[in-house]
Amino acid sequence: MTELVFKTAAEIADLIASKEISSQEVTKAFYDRAEALNPQTNSYLYQSRENAMAAAVSADKAQAEGKILSILHGVPIAVKDNLTTTDAPTTSGSKILEGWVPQYDATVVKKLRASGLPILGKTNLDEFAMGSSTEYSAFGPSRNPWDLDRIPGGSGGGSSSAVAGHLAPIAIGSDTGGSIRYPAAVTGSVGAKPTYGAVSRYGLIALASSLDQIGPVSNTVLDSALLQDVISGHDPHDSTSLKDSLGSMTDAVKNADVKGLRVGIVKQLSKDGFQPGVKACFDDTIAKLTAQGVEVVEVDCPSFEYAIAAYYLILPAEASSNLAKFDSVRFGLRVAPEGNPTIERVMAATREAGFGPEVKRRIILGTYALSSGYYDAYYGSAQKVRTLIQQDLEKAFSQVDVLLTPTAPTTAFKIGEKVNDPIAMYLNDVATIPANLAGIPGMSVPNGLAQEDGLPSGVQILAPAMQDAQMYRVGAIIEKLYTDEWGSPLIAKAPKLEVK
Known about the structure:
By secondary structure, this protein is of the alpha/beta class.
């Protein structure tokens, strides 16, 4: 049974469908591995064998009755701990929510349950999804299975380390400025941010409501496609949820071909600022595509130069508003100071004790940006830049089908290397932020190992809004180029963590 944990979600689903294995067998195999290895990786903040196995029993019972609930029926999954769950605590990586058990399931969680996917546990993240390394989690950093002294990306480093370390076959993440794609790049896995509104955000603890999007984390493009098909769709509980279907991502992967494909290289994201090994991997991807007959052209997106500045005004402004609900009154932590505990003093003491330094930093920045006299100069100007970025992307997509960039400027850095340097941490998102500002889909696919350190690199695919299937098509094409070379997806080359 131990070999089950090294199979893809698609392979596991096929084995369950053919009754060669049961959901209980595969769920137990992953749970046992996660239980043994989580002390090393800190991928999970919460695990419940009882909940996972009960869901697996239900999946097997449904199959015995002739009910296959979805294309991933019986396949276990990990869920990022900023999605509400009625049977497990939801902390969003923060002391202020430690031990809080919500009264309702997020829509995505409901869909997973209804589709027969047992939930293995809740994965670690930077507090309220603010960070690029998971070092800002109140419960300690997650670690990269390629090198346990290095970060697995953020904010969704728990989901990426769980998948890369085979502690889960697939996982759910959320992406506000790259929090699915960046972790995927540095752990050699696949991560996709769907078009804004393609997946319901109901039950996601909001960071920045106009930027947040839930998406899949996996070891292959097909696995991500299967999972996106399960979790996407209109939700009346989410006013931003798209009513139009985006089609089948799974079909796009299975029918992928290079015929007539045009890809664009973003001038502003293909030259300076990238680690030489990362740049070499990206150039190799472009060369391979060109050899396949793909047309490659350079496109100009001048407003990308201001994307980080705009993002780090819009996000803190929205975060300061969203986090105002954590006031010590309605739910979560409550700290009563000595003396006269007025509501103002209780609120101040609770937030001082419950919020970490990065959350406080962004709340202060966001509140200032929204304050009287500064709104137009900061938040208003940032929204104008956002419009320019959308216009640049529209122009670029009139010339090409998709855009390609390196996903991350470097490979995984060492834990502690940047945690006290917020600006250096923010720069990790230089390539991923434009997709969130524009609401378009983006995906990171492994494209080799950097020559300097032998660590994974990723190539990012950006597609026009609502053309997620095109993104998956190109992701499958790129993955196949390297699968042919390696004989398997890149993740198979990762050092396999041993259960001691």
